[in-house]
Amino acid sequence: MNFRLPPVLGGTTLVAGTAIGAGMLALPMASAGMWFYWSTALMLVSWFVMLRSSQALLEVSLHFEPGHSFHTMVRDLLGPKWSFANGCAVTFVLYTLIYAYVSGGGSIIEQSITSITGNAPPRLLASLVFALLLTTFIWWSSKAVDRFSILLVGGMVITYLFSISGMATHLRIDTLMDSNGNGGEMIFLWGAVSTYLTSFCFHASVPSLVKYMGKEPRTINASLRYGTVVALVCYMSWLTVADGNISREDFKAVIAAGGNVGDLMAATGNNLGSFLILRMLESFSLLAVATSFLGAGLGLFDYIADLCKFDDTNWGRTKTLLVTFAPPILGGIIWPDGFLPAIGWAGLASAFWAVIIPALLLAAARNQFGKTGYVTPGGRLTIPMLLFYGCFVAICHTLFVFNLLPMYH
To answer: Any stretches that span the bilayer, and where are they (predicted)?
Structure first.
């Protein structure tokens, strides 16, 4: 193997760390109708498509000098109108995800306190405490976010391993296979495609990999492959233990209760009967949501500061903080149980900027520069495949929103 391990390891960590987050907590609820076999198939398809779109971005990025952003590539190759549309899509995704994390974080805190003390705190208070604590780090500095994130990620890895291994000891094969039911129905797959797509979104990191590693396509491509495989293994492990502990029938109650992360934790606790494992799972869920909140929040914070030309003084950062976080926090207060739908909406926008836009960029780059150096696997089929799947996800989610596709309940 000719790869230098440290760069590949660092790139793999960046890709996996960006992809894995709170979105994985929505997977068991999104897949309840189709259940384990169909969800496995959809997971593999989503992984393959998102890997290909990231490799398409890599090919495009190598035609530019290291340091060029995603925004710059879209503007130079597709023009200002596409650049504006792409910017709107990314902003929508970030606002939507922050709202989802406020909703999910408050739900987990409420459920954890209720489970331990028997007294439920106000959801409003739980969401506010969660959001205000994390936004304080973002307001303080990027360095504060970086250092705090290291602690959160370390805790997330430890609690993930403990919770997954603990839940695996309680896994029931008949529950996982839905032996008492019909094993899931394919019709429920179409409404989940946008949620699954969101789980593999890390594409803004591709230009960053080129910036930090230089024009090293073999090393970066290895990072993309290994990083997405790590995410795939984590998601499949989580789906396996979740579906093996909570029956398909029990998920109806989870969805009816609002489909938030706290509802999932409550259902897991009812089936596990283990205080320690449940606490580990709740801790992992809260850390995953918090880590994702900081990542999305810092990205949107910097974007808003640049867009609105707010300076870096305390007052300037306060104005940026209000514009960035007031809308999603208010949304979390007004509509506290929107975690699952929000992840789906983020998937709809992600289908545009992380699947369709990379396909258009690849077509424009090949037209302008030809095929030189690194070439995305898949040959001529790559571009039409990405365009088809991106449009397919958008159509499925639109039909689902207008109740033209069934939801499991």
So the answer is: 7-29, 35-51, 82-102, 122-141, 148-167, 187-210, 222-241, 284-305, 342-365, 386-405
